[in-house]
Amino acid sequence: MSTPPNRYVQPEVGEARVDRLWQNVSQRLEPRPSRVWRGVMLGTALSAAAAGGAFWLKLPSFTGPSSGSAERAVLADAKLETKSDELSVTLGDGSSVKLASQSEVQVQSGQASSISLQLSRGALWCDVTHREERKFRVVAGDVEVRVVGTQFSVKSSAGPSPRVEVSVTRGVVEVVSARRPGIVARVAAGQSWIQDGESAAPKPEVAPQSSESAKPDVPLPSAQPVVPSGRELFEKAGESRRAGDAAGAAHAYEELLRLHPGDGRASLAAFELGRLRMDRLGDLSGAISALERAVAMNIGPSFREDALARLVSVYASQGNLAACRRARDRYASSYPAGVHAAAVATRCGSH
Amino acid sequence: MKELLSHSPQPQPTRSGAGPSDAALVLAARAGEEWAREALFRRYARLALGLAYRILPRDADVDDLVQDSFLAAFERLDRLSNPQAFQAWLSSIVVRTAGKRLRRRRLQIRLGLLRSEPIDVDQVVSRSAPPDVAVELRAVYGLLEKLSVEERIALVLRRVERLEIPEIAEQMGLSSSTVKRRLNAAEARLERAVEP
Fold this sequence. Notes:
With 351 residues, chain A is an alpha+beta fold.
């Protein structure tokens, strides 16, 4: 019996994708929060109501073992504490916060206009929905992280040499340390900011500034940028694309091309970037530059053919008939019997 | 009956090997056992993703479709008369949920809330497909957006999944005669599309 054609139409499915889907399904299957969590929600809702706010905790889920003797989160007066499990909480606006095991966070403010979390120990991972009118901050020791709308983590360790580490995976955060009054460090995607015992008395490489005379934000000397690899950026782009986040995927491809132009994946990244800008983001000029770059980077033959055909299409959409004809001729001379030959021949008018 | 989700990749066994039967998992899941639902999900997630992708080949839509399908399946487990038939039952839920999503999507496009995007045939059809199969698949996927929702699904189930008409009828919840009419219309357009 011949192989069914469906074998040749398959999505990419990795463990991470299956895990993520299961987490979403299991969360949506939750009929209602457990008794403990209803208490949490009630307490939080009451405190929010008292403050005139509208922040609430919704559909919390545990990511650790779902049953058995595993210790679970304990909460008292909006204090979240984990033992052996991690804890995930979705806020009312869609932002999510995940508390690592052996961690503790206090909800200092839970209003519509201001959310403030105090991390006492452990690590906190946040994916924050951008809202102009809402301030979101995390405090760890004497360090304050102000969020614009991003994905980041904060780790805080106590002991003889306390250390706070902020890592940003998407967007930008502002970090303020009581040890460096007046200085705001901006930490962008792919960068980490660390304060430890050694940076407790930092050298005055950056002069403290008053808030009135503050220049554009200056990173602290201890900021340690971490450059993601080409592979990581390519995978991140793929994940974003699969999640429907075209802008996020495009950003990852752009970063790959900017940081690793010689990477083996760069030409494919340029092609994918062109495709996303053309099909999803409506950025025709950006699509042209990315597709031209893919062609110039000697992308594989089948992708090159597609890229050349797309260039014809996008120039036609722009109304740039001269460029369209040049692209059409380039395609026709390279692929006279190509799969897009008939479609390409009808573009750019009759000349 | 040939099961729609029976083609590669195969269901994921448990770590210990074959694992409990579908019937055992369904009964445990009905009793509220979270582990049983998770086991069913992990056993059939890849198969459902594959089927969803072939009907609706956009990754973001596929994830939503599979989640919605499993949710619907778990919420209606009590209605499954033969617990061992979970796989075929799930596939019919995927097919019907895909139909609803496609109808909603087309309405959104008509209202200007969504932009119509052609299917990227080069992306969808594997480069490892033999030439004759690739030609057929490219023709099918190049045509799908021009078909009605029922024609589209019927054509994918026939030409890509290689199901027989009674099986397609069962999966889609239609009569065999309706499926025949939808297939005739779709096949006629497919022939016109591949004419030189």
